[in-house]
Amino acid sequence: MSEAVDESFDVIVVGAGAVGENAADRAGRSGLKVMVVERRLVGGECSFYACTPTKAMLRPVHAAHAAQRVRGVAGAHLVPAEVMARRDYWISDLDDSGAVRWLESAGIALVRGTARLVGERLVEVDGTTYRAGAAVVVATGTSPAVPDLPGLRDAKPWTNIEATTSSTVPERLVILGGGVVACETAQIYCALGSRVTLVERGPRLLGRAEPFASSLVAAALAREGVDVRLGVTVTAVSRPEPGGEVTVTLSDGSTVAGDEVMAAMGRTPNTGDLGLDVVGAEVDESGYVVVDDSMRVTSVPGDWLYAVGDVTGRNLLTHMGKYQARVAGDIIAARGAGRATDGPGMRAWADHLGAPQVVFTDPEVSSVGLTEAAARERGMDVRVVNVKMRAASGAGLQADEYEGYAQIVVDESRRVVVGATFVGQDTAEMVHAAGIAVVGEVPLERLWHVVPSFPTMSEIWLRLLEHYGL
Fold it and tell me: What is the pLDDT of residues 283-299, one digit of tens each?
């Protein structure tokens, strides 16, 4: 640690992704001086290597599919080079100057480098030490996991980073994993012309989703030409020549050849080199920082250390991380202004009700709250209602022969919806209304009086409640 300590800032946020930006913005609204530290691109993983680029590439796929499902439209097709150009526009050609300008406009200082905690409210960045007058916020996120499978790391696999920035479409792509990243990437590259093989060790794709959602996505991928292999594990990966053919050997004795192999097998928290041990910050068995609902790191005395976003492991979703960041930032701002810290927006209690999520495959899987299995694990008296999406008149108008299902999970003891899943074309925009029902714990009898517009897909709520018996 250098001898001189810079004490110019009240709040130091480590990590300038979307979550860190939110924490910094909210903390600075009461006049606190805020600094963020970033070792890569300001805007983070979501903006450049995850949410934004994948959705930029998937939207043309969805639009082409949607056009083909409506009688009266002909000729919709993809132009791969234009799809990638659209992606490059949305990730600003990996240039973060726009995000940097936003920080400047918000009065937030940026220091580029690698940060490490070296003491109470002390953060060292590449040899310079800063003391936060009020708080430090850890918002370092996660990195793609590349398991120690025989030969995999030597094969230099793609992760989401390479998949979202590649300027070429491999002729053959082998994707290891069956979660959100794997399924979305499989659909993108299959649509762009790759022969895609998807290898998932579990019995189904999207293992945390409702089983019917997994089945519909698997069937759609298979129809489009993805070779979906379930219930098999990778025993070895071989790439004798750099940049050459990759051979993946599976537990059933078969092999799959590809021009690229992608590891889409989970995430690991970016906590290993942060100096958390120096300040006594507790991490769980997976390395995630342990926090309470105020996002305070409970094992560190003094109420000065917070953690938000993926690094906490609570919900590995950008929107939930930003929600947590608003909570932490508001609490820090309130403390700085001498205000109470028990306001209605100052606890991240919605985390525990089940986060909203959209898998942007076609069909989309849009869900919020608890799955049936999770609700039963919590001991709830569960009743499930499942109807075809085409029961809503708006669905049939949206796509001829609309395919998809809607499901609600009801806690019968309270007669409230605790979970909802919609699978089908254009269901992403339906999940927020479901979230209001779940987080607001709206009684079914009151939901009955929320009248859906005709003819829209929201009419599915009426059908669900009718099937329930209202």
Answer: 999 999 999 999 999 99
Residue 100, domain extent: 5-43+96-144+269-350
137/273 same-domain check: yes
Model confidence at 188, in pLDDT bands (50, 70, 90)?
very high
184 is in an annotated binding site: yes
Q: What percent of the chain has pLDDT over 90?
A: 96
Q: Is 327 annotated as a binding residue?
A: no
- 388 annotated binding-site participant: no
Q: Whole-angstrom Cα distance, residue 158 to residue 156?
A: 7
Span 190-208, average pLDDT:
97
Say whether both 212 and 345 belong to one domain.
no
What spatial distance separates the first Cα and last Cα of the chain, rounded to whole Å? Answer: 67
In-domain check, residue 65: no
Read off the pLDDT of residues 120-175 as tens digits, 9 standing for 90 and up.
999 999 999 999 999 999 999 999 999 999 999 999 999 999 999 999 999 999 99
310 is in an annotated binding site: yes
| 365 marked as part of a ligand binding site | no
Q: How many domains, in total, are found in the chain?
A: 3
- Tally the residues of the chain: 470
418 is an annotated ligand-binding site residue: no
Last residue of a domain, one of 300, 315, 350: 350
Is 179 annotated to bind a ligand? Reply is yes
Asked whether residue 392 is marked as a ligand-binding residue, the answer is no
Under 8 Å CB-to-CB from 433, ≥6 apart: which residues?
458, 461
Give the single-character DSSP code of 453: P
| 322 and 408 fall within a common domain | no
156 is in an annotated binding site: no
241 is in an annotated binding site: no
Q: Is 86 helix (H, G, I), strand (E, B) or coil?
A: helix
200 is in an annotated binding site: yes
